[in-house]
Amino acid sequence: MNLSPALSQIKDEIKGHALSYGLDFFETIFEMIDYAQINEVASYGGFPTRYPHWRFGMEYEELSKGYAYGLQKIYEMVINNDPCYAYLMESNNLVDQKIVMGHVYAHCDFFKNNIYFSGTNRKMIDEMANHGMRIRNYVEQFGEEDVERFVDCCLSLENLIDVHSPFLDRKRRKEDSEITDEESPKTVQKIRSKEYMDRFINPEEFMESQKRKLEEEKQRERMFPEHPERDILLFLIEHAPLDKWQRNILSLIREESYYFSPQAQTKIMNEGWATYWHSKIMTEKALKDSELIDYADHHSGTLAVRPGHINPYKLGVELFRDIEDRWNKGKFGKEYEECDDYLAKKSWNQHLGRGREKVFEVRRIYNDINFIDTFLTKEFCEDHRLFTYKFNEESKRYEIEDRDFKKIKQKLLFSLTNMGSPIILVEDGNHGNRGELLLHHQYEGVDLRIDYAKDTLRNLFLIWRRPVHINTVVEGRKKRFSFTGQEHMEKDV
Amino acid sequence: MVSKIERDHTRFRQIVRGKIKRELKHYITQGELIGKKGRDLISIPLPQIDIPRFRYETRKMGGVGQGEGEPGTSLGGDGDATGSSGAGELPGEHILEVDISMDELAAILGEELELPRIESRGKKNITAQRDKYAGIRSTGPETLRVFKRTYKEALRRQLAQGTYDPIDPIIIPVRDDKRYRSWKTHTTPESNAAILYMMDVSGSMGDEQKEIVRIESFWIDTWLRSQYKGIQIRYVIHDAVAREVDQHAFYHTRQSGGTKISSAYKHASKLIREVYPPTEWNIYAFHFSDGDNWSGGDTNECIEILRQEILPHCNLFCYGQVESPYGSGQFIKDLREHFRDPETLVVSEIKDKDGIYESIKEFLGKGR
Questions:
Q1: Do B68 and A44 touch (CB under 8 A)?
Q2: Contact A432, A467 (CB under 8 A)
Q3: Which of A176, B204, B230, B310 is in Cβ range 3.0-4.6 Å of B326 for a Cys bridge?
C-alpha cells in the first residue's frame, strides 16, 4: 500500500461507511499507480505477473492509444483475491478516488459473497505468478516459437468451458455404471407366441426396428465420449495426444478461464452493486459540498448510455434500486402480479421495508442470467426505454427493432447465455472410427462467424492432430465444417 | 530493465509487421491504406490478428439497447454510405487498427519487394549546413546573452561576496557573470529528390485507370520518401496540352480531349531546366498513360525530348501503361523500339490492380 496520509485517511473513512452499511469484504489493499502502469496492469487482466504473450501487448497498445487520444481512461481495477488488490490512478482527483474506493469495497463484497465466486481461487495472484513462471520456463526449454504457437492455440479455445461445472458433476462415475449395468441383450428377444401367431405378435417390421434400436444402443455405449461434453478443454487435456508441457499449459489456461468466468457471468450485477454502493456512500455520507459537481460529473459519466450498447453499470444499478423499491413497498407476489389496475399497481405500497434485505440476498445467490430473468419487469423496460436492435441487411446499419418486453428479455438473456459464446460440445472423439474429433454447435438461431470458426478448427487440429469437424447451421441449412490438416472442407449434413 | 509489457508489446509489433508483410500484396492492390495516412503514421486495419474463437456472427446477433427512438431508427453512424469502411462503427464490431510509421511501412515494402536501396548519384549529394544552439559559454555577442543564466551567476557571486541585500535585492552582473548562447554547425549530407508525376487525363483514361495510378504513386512515394530527405513532388496532367496541378486535381481531373504526350514531356523538361537543376537534385519522373498518342509524329517528338532533355538528367524515368478498353497501347511499343537497352528508362504494363505489385517492382527494382 502506498497511499498518501491524506488518502489513507479517506480510505479509512470510506471503509467505515461501507462496513456500517453491512458490506462484508476481504482485506483490501490499494495501490497508487500512474497511467502507464495502470494500462500495463489492465492489459494483463489485473495480474502484472501473468505469463508472457503478445495479446497482452496488443491490449496494451489499444489501451495506451485510447488514453493518449483521450477516448478512455481506467479509473480503477480490482482483483478477486484474498486480500483484494485495487489500483487507483495517480492523476485522478480526490473525489474520483473517493468514488472509486466506495466502488471497490462493494466489488470486494460481491467477490466474497456471491455464490458464483465461491469456487474461485482466492490466492489467484500467487497462482498467476506460478503460471507465468511455468510458461517462462517452457519458453526457455522448448523455444519461444513453439510455446507461443501452442499458447495461441489454447487461447483460441479458451472459451470452450462448461460454465456450470464448478457446481455439478456431469460425469457419471464410471465404476458405478460398469458394475451395476447388466450386459445388455445381444439379440432382440421375441415375445413368446404360438407359431401360427408369431407373424402377428412379432411382426417383421417391429423386429427390424427393435434390432436397429439395439444396434443404436450398442453404438452409443461404444461412443466416446458417452455423452456430449461441454468442457472441451478438459476433454482435450484428458484425451488429446499432447506432450506433458503442452498438457500443463492447456490446464493452466483452462484454470484461468474458470477463474474469470464468474466475472463474465455477473458483469451487470457486479457493476450494478458497486455503483449502487458508491452512490449511497457518497451521497449519504462521504460527499462534501464542494465536491458535489465533480461527483455528479463522474457518476453521470459512469451511467451514460449509448444506443447500441447496454451499460452494465446503468442497467445493474437501476435494477438493484428497482428491487429495493419493490421489496420496500411489497410490489411482488401473486396479488401484485395479478392486479390489472394500472394506477393501483403504480401506487402499490404495503410498507414492507424489506428492500435492503432483499438486495443483499440477491447479490448472494444470483448471476446475470437469473437476475435478469427474475427481476427485469415490463414496467422497468418501459421506464428505462429498452429496445432490441438488429442489423438491417438493406440499409446496412443497425436499427431499433422492437420495444416488446418479451423480446427484449429474450434477447438480453440470449446475449448472456454461456457468456455470450455459442454452446459447443464434443460429440464424438473417434469420429468415423478414425480418431477424428467431431464437435457440435448447439444452434440457437444465430450463426457462427465462419471465418473465425475455420481458423479455430485449424488451431484445434494442432492440438488433436487428427482431422476435426464441427456441425452447425448456416442460414437455415445444416452444415459441417472440417479441417483435415491440409485443407478446409464444408458440406451439407 | 525491460518491463514485462514492453516485451509483450514488442512481440506484438513484430507479429503485426509479419502480418503486414504477408498481406502486403493485398494492401497494395486494394489501395485502402491511402485514406488512412496521417502525417507520419498510417493506420492499418488488421482484423486477422485477433485470436480466432468460436463466436457468433455479430450482425446476426443483434442485441438490446437503451434510449429513445421508434422501431427502424438507426443506431447512429452513417450506415454504409462509404462502403466497407462503415464496419468499424457497428456495435460489438471491433476491427483492430494498428499504427505504424511510414518509414516502417517503406521498410516492409522494400523487404517484401526486394527493392535495393537507392544509390543517389554522387554529385547530387549536396551538403547542408545548419547552425544549432548547443550550449552556453562565457563569451559572445550581447544579443545572445542569456538573461536567466547571467542573473543566476551574478546572484551567486553577490551572495558569496556578501553584497546581496535582501531588502534591496539589486543584482548587477559584471563581465564574468555574463553567459551567452553558443552554437554548433552541423553538416548533414542531404540528397534532395524531386518526383514528377505525369498523367494522361484524356477521355480514354477512366476512373479505374486513375485509381491504379493513384495507388501506384502512393507506394512509389512511400518508398522514395524513405530513401531521401526533403522530397518535392510536382503533378502534371495532360491531354493535348499539359498543365501543372495539385495532388487532388491530379487524380480527379477528367478531360475529354485528344492526347499529345509531348506536351507533358516538354513541361517536364522545362521543370528540370528551370527548377530542378540535375546537379542538385535526384530527379524521378513517372508517366502514366493508356498508350494512345495523337500521332506518330508526336511520338517521335516525345522520343526526341526524352533522349535529349529528360533521360540524361533523371535518375529514373518510368513509363507505366495502364490498360484501358479504349487505348491502343501503342506508345509502350514505340518506347521499347527506340530505347533498346535503356539505363534510366523503365517501362511497365499494368493490366489491372493486381498488376500494381509487379509494376512497382519493375520501377523501383533498379535501385537508381
A1: no
A2: no
A3: B204
**Phi first, then psi: what are they for B67, rounded to 5°?**
145, -175
pLDDT of residue B204: 75
pLDDT at B92 over 50: no
A278: phi then psi, degrees, rounded to nearest 5: -65, -35
Domain ranges of chain A: 5-114+266-300, 125-170+229-263, 177-222, 303-417, 422-492
Q: Are B15 and A54 a contacting pair at CB < 8 A?
A: yes
- Work out how many CB contacts closer than 8 A connect A with B: 196
Model confidence pLDDT, tens digit, residues B271-287: 988 888 887 788 889 99
Q: Where are the beta strands (DSSP E) in A81-163?
A: 84-89
Contact B62 A401 (CB under 8 A): yes
Greatest mean pLDDT among A451-455, B72-76, B107-111, B212-216 lies in A451-455
Which residue ranges form the domains of chain B, and what is each CATH number? Answer: 1-53+92-114 (no CATH), 128-187 (no CATH), 192-364 (3.40.50.410)
Nearest to A401 among B8, B61, B71 (CB): B71
- 8 Å CB contact of B55 and A452: yes
Question: What pLDDT is recorded for position A410?
Answer: 94
A400: which strand partners? A389
What are the residues whose beta carbons fall under 8 Å from the beta carbon of A157, sequence distance 6 or more?
A: A232, A233, A236, A456, A459, A460, A463, B53
Task: Tell me which residue in B9, B68, B91 faces A309 most closely, judged by beta carbons.
Answer: B91
pLDDT at residue A440 is higher than 90: yes
Q: What is the pTM of this model?
A: 0.77
